[in-house]
Structures are given as structure tokens and as C-alpha cells.
Design goal:
41% of the residues are buried. The strands form 6 sheets. Strands 3-2-1-17-18-19 form a 6-stranded parallel beta sheet. Strands 8-13-12-11-10 form a 5-stranded mixed beta sheet, sandwiched between helices. The chain is 36% helix and 21% strand. It starts with 7 loop residues before the first strand and ends in a 5-residue tail after the last helix. By secondary structure, it is of the alpha/beta class. The protein has 4 domains: 3-73 and 309-428, Alpha-Beta Complex (inorganic pyrophosphatase (n-terminal core)), CATH 3.90.1640.10; 86-128 and 255-303, CBS-domain (Roll); 142-250, Udp-n-acetylmuramoylalanyl-d-glutamate--2,6- Diaminopimelate Ligase, Chain: A, domain 1; 436-548, Roll (Diaminopimelate Epimerase, Chain A, domain 1). It has 18 helices and 24 strands. Helix 2 crosses helix 14 (417-428).
């Protein structure tokens, strides 16, 4: 569970995270941790980080956020208290007292090393008590002497034989001397009163132990003979009936527990946990770690209230781009700069969707507005997100606010804006040694628009020959993605931010959408668009408008 018992709120960007997505998550989590003390805001990412983002994080000495595959609630999201447990060596009596004190119906049982050994419940205690009606033999469930002494509140008179547990048959010396002596065999246990002559002859007959009731005095001759024979003499303060009852409760918990018990880990999803609890005869499940040590104990009562992870979404607001199981999470804020998508929430939330060039510009603006101190490393990350998402402030999506934020952040980060821009560009444009799949996946987003499912990737290059030489492989990968994921069209936008004023486009699927949107002709899966395109401001809106007009010309 989180430190200080604060609930974690994950600040997370879209799948296939780019630099803006990762850096805005880190920056906004920092801002929220300064201004909102209710929760612990943790930056996260919904996929592997690309080479550019790795460079940025290394450049400013910031660790990569943890990768999260799903926001489905898990056992770790439950408010678990320290579990109550019994030990395998505890007596049934101690178990009953513990269950009564804690008002519980079942408990996990742990061994001497703290590892889970089994489960025990009231029904197990009741079954043992019913079975103890014929309590006459300890051979199958020996009683530990120390436990027996504690349970009886008794006292050992002599134990020269150093007996540690009682395991023979049990007799009560309520009959004539001849009858009891005829029945006793070596190793048996006899519950007896103050009949000194019978006590002596029972010792001579080889009894392993005498339990003398009502704290009756044992004479010195009997004690001496017991010491000689190694016979245990135990004094019980209770009368015979109570002594027998308490002996039945001296059996170790290990003897009545179930060794098989439903177990879960901290990262077991709540849906799987519910199933295990429902199917368990104890209506509960034990939480253990990888070493099978006890962490928690969950019953049906613990699952009455809904359990959900909490999240702030940055740089996206569409289900198709969100981390898996986002619909199961409680979204408390959305910080974005894209078109409004299809994510909905149960309750009203804070949404800041600003049409600037980068989510990092939005985050920086909020921090400036609240006059929150921006550490140099956070400033460097936010600057990197802006430069990355605006192609060094050259894309059509770039606003004056992006330029102002970039200038101020560069000063706070201690870098020269233009010099660092070139440094970032060099790190981000590296196609050597990468497969077509890696190149396309590095900045790939899914869009649902006008009834069509589109997959659009974007990449920068400094040498267009790199793409010419690999065009066939890239088109094959686009086609593979289209077929495997059921896209109507897959697209790769290729930009040379230094020397080109146009966009190279590779496309597979229903190419008529691009032809209609931009009045171009797609030949052999390729075409040129007259200017550099922003996916969110130029490309997707144009496709959406073309779809609204229908396929006909």
C-alpha cells in the first residue's frame, strides 16, 4: 500500500507513449503532489518509451515512469488491515478465544516462519468438538505438553522422561483398580484422582502420563516412582469432566485446519479475487507474497464497496488510445490538447483541453499560473515535450503560447533553446538498426472517426533516402497491422523537419480517404502532401471532413 496510507492516483498518457505524453505525465504528477495532498500522484506510461524519450530522461536525470498495462483494480487497491492469524502450534482453545475476541468466522494459519499453512473456520472447530465425543486416543493428533499445560493452567510435578507430547490412549480411573489396570497398556495416559495405590500401580504398568485432577496432592513415594520410570505427572486444577474437555481443546490448530486455501497476490485483479472468494467454502481468500508469507486476509465484507484505481489522463481522451481497462478506473482529471474523444465519466471531473501544440505547454501554463516552483529537470522535460510535439516549434499546431513556454522553460532548465532543439532532433531521428515494425510503432495512434478505424504513425527523418530504401518493408508492416488489428486504413506520415515543406505518406487500406481529403492520387501505396501535417490539427480533421461527405466525388 502507498506511503502514509495515501491512495495512488496514476498520471498516465496514451499507448505507444511519445515524449509529450511521458513528460507531461511526470510534470503534472509533480504539480499535483505539490498542490494536492489528498493523494499520491504517480507518473506512469502505457507502453515502452521511444529512443527520443529515453534521451530526454537521461539528459535531465529523471527516471522513466513505471509501465502500467492495465488500470483494472487489483488486491493492492484494497484498504487491507493487518491480518489476524493463528499458528500451527496454537491450541484449538487459543484459536477459539482469538476468533471470539476478533469477532471473525475464519482465519489463515501460518507456520513458524510466517508462511501460509492453511485455513481454519468455526465449522472446523465445531466438527472437532463433535468428533471429540469419543476422545480416547491421541495417536493421530498428539498433544504438545506445553500447549496442554497452558490450556489446563496446570503444573508439571515430574517429567524425568522429558516427554514433549502425549500420544497414547486416554483412560479415566473411575472404575475398580483391577478393571483399569487390565485395560491400560504401556504409553497410555490416565486421568486420575487422589487414589495413591492406583497411581503407583499405573506407573508400574507403564503409563506414559498421569493427569491428577482438582489439584489433589501426590505423595512423595508416587513422585519418586514416577521419576524412576520416567512417567509424567501433571496436576490439573479442574475436575475430571472439565479436564477432559480442555484436553480436547489442547489439540494443535494444525490438526483441524484445511491445508488447501484460496490465495491471491497483490496484483490479482479484483474480478478474479471475487470469483475465488465466492467459490471458497470460507468465503474468503488469503493474500500472500512470492515467498508465501501472509500479507492480508479478504472476506466478502471487504468487497462490498466498489474498488477502483484512480487516474489522471494526459495527452489523450479517447478509449482507443488509453491504457487497458480504463473504463474500470475512476478518472478524476483530463489534461489534453487534442480533439474531444469518447471517454466518459460517471461523475463531473476537471477537464483542461487547450488547443496548443503540446500537453507540456498546458502543464507548464498551470504551474506558472499557480506559481509552483519548476525544478530544472522538470522544466527540461516539459521543454522537450513541446519541442517534440511541435517539431521544434515549426508545425502548424504551434501557438505563441508554445513559443513563450518553451523560452521560459529553457531558461529554467539551463539550456539554450536552439542548441537543445538540435540536440533533441538528432536524438529523435535515428532509423538505423530498427525494424519497420519498430519505426511505425514508435509514434503510432489509433483513431475512430466517421465509422472508420484508422491507425496513423508519424516519424521524422533527416535523409529521405532512408525511407526510399525501406519503403517496401514499411508498406508491408502497414498492411500487416491493418489486417491484424482490423483497421480500415493504416498510414505513415514521414517528415523531414529541416529541408522539406511537404509530407511523405505511405498508406494501406482504403486510400480513397486520403485522395478525397487532400485531392491527391495514391500510387503504389504512396503520395506526397503539399505541407507538413499535424495528425490532430491537419490530417485527422481533413479525413473526418472527407468521411462526412461520403465516398462519392
Amino acid at each position: 500500500m502507498p506511503d502514509d496510507n495515501k491512495k495512488i492516483v496514476y498520471v498516465i498518457g496514451h499507448k505507444n507513449p511519445d515524449t509529450d505524453s511521458v513528460c507531461s505525465a511526470i510534470g503534472y504528477a509533480h504539480f499535483k503532489n505539490v498542490t494536492d495532498k489528498r493523494y499520491l500522484f504517480s507518473p506512469a506510461r502505457a507502453g515502452k518509451i521511444n529512443e527520443e524519450t529515453k534521451f530526454v530522461l537521461s539528459r535531465f536525470g529523471v527516471a522513466a515512469p513505471n509501465e502500467i498495462e492495465s488500470l483494472a483494480a487489483t488486491v493492492s487497491d484494497l484498504d487491507m488491515k493487518r491480518p489476524v492469524s493463528a499458528g500451527v502450534r496454537d491450541s484449538v482453545q487459543a484459536l477459539m478465544l482469538l476468533m471470539k475476541e476478533k469477532n471473525v468466522r475464519s482465519l489463515p494459519v501460518i507456520d513458524d516462519e510466517g508462511r501460509l499453512a492453511g485455513m481454519v473456520g468455526l465449522k472446523d472447530v465445531a466438527m472437532h468438538y463433535m468428533d471429540s465425543v469419543g476422545f480416547t486416543d491421541l495417536s493421530k493428533a498428539p498433544i504438545d505438553l506445553n500447549i496442554l499445560v497452558r490450556t489446563l493452567e496446570g503444573r508439571v510435578i515430574t517429567n524425568s522422561g522429558k516427554i514433549q507430547s502425549l500420544s497414547g490412549r486416554i483412560h479415566i480411573a473411575s472404575m475398580q483398580k483391577g478393571t483399569i489396570l487390565n485395560r491400560v497398556r504401556p504409553g497410555d495416559i490416565v486421568i486420575v484422582g487422589d487414589q495413591h495405590d492406583i497411581q503407583s500401580e499405573l506407573i508400574e504398568a507403564g503409563c506414559s502420563a498421569l493427569i491428577v485432577v482438582n489439584n489433589m496432592q501426590v505423595n512423595n513415594d508416587v513422585v519418586a516412582e514416577a521419576e524412576k520410570k520416567g512417567t509424567l505427572i501433571l496436576l490439573s486444577p479442574h475436575h475430571t469432566f472439565s479436564t477432559v474437555q480442555l484436553m480436547t481443546l489442547s489439540v494443535p490448530v494444525e490438526a483441524i485446519m484445511h491445508k488447501e486455501s484460496p490465495t491471491v497476490g497483490l496484483f490479482t485483479q479484483i474480478s478474479d479475487l471475487r470469483k475465488k472468494v465466492v467459490e471458497s467454502e470460507y468465503r474468503s481468500a488469503v493474500v500472500i507474497d512470492s515467498d508465501e508469507r501472509l500479507i492480508g486476509f479478504i472476506t466478502r465484507t471487504d468487497l462490498l464497496k466498489p474498488v477502483r484505481k484512480m487516474a489522471v489522463l494526459v495527452d489523450h481522451n479517447e478509449l482507443s488510445q488509453a491504457v487497458d481497462n480504463i473504463e474500470e478506473a475512476e478518472i478524476i482529471e483530463i489534461i489534453d490538447h487534442h480533439r474531444v474523444g469518447d471517454i466518459s465519466t460517471v461523475a463531473p471531473i476537471f477537464v483542461y483541453n487547450d488547443p496548443v501544440g503540446s500537453t507540456c505547454t498546458v502543464v507548464a501554463g498551470v504551474m506558472f499560473l499557480y506559481q509552483v516552483k519548476v525544478p530544472a529537470e522538470i522544466a527540461g522535460l516539459l521543454l522537450s515535450g513541446i519541442l517534440s510535439d511541435t517539431l521544434l516549434l515549426t508545425l502548424s499546431t504551434t501557438t505563441e503560447r508554445d513559443r513563450e513556454a518553451a523560452k521560459k522553460l529553457a531558461e529554467l532548465a539551463g539550456v539554450a533553446l536552439e542548441d537543445y532543439g538540435r540536440e533533441l532532433l538528432q536524438a529523435s531521428i535515428n532509423v538505423q538498426g530498427k525494424t519497420a515494425s519498430e519505426l511505425i510503432a514508435a509514434d503510432f495512434k489509433e483513431f475512430l472517426i466517421g465509422g472508420k478505424k484508422l491507425g496513423v504513425s508519424q516519424m521524422m527523418v533527416l535523409d529521405c533516402n532512408d525511407i526510399d530504401q525501406r519503403e517496401e518493408d514499411l508498406l508491408d508492416e502497414l498492411e500487416r497491422l491493418r489486417v491484424v488489428s482490423g483497421y480500415d486504413m493504416t498510414v505513415l506520415l514521414v517528415t523531414n523537419p529541416v529541408s522539406s515543406s511537404h509530407e511523405r505518406v505511405l498508406v494501406k487500406g482504403e486510400t480513397w480517404m486520403i485522395e478525397k481529403a487532400f485531392n491527391v492520387t495514391v500510387e503504389d501505396g504512396s503520395c506526397i502532401l503539399p505541407r507538413v501535417m499535424s495528425r490532430k490539427k491537419d490530417f485527422i480533421p481533413a479525413i473526418g471532413q472527407a468521411l462526412s461527405m461520403g465516398r462519392g466525388h
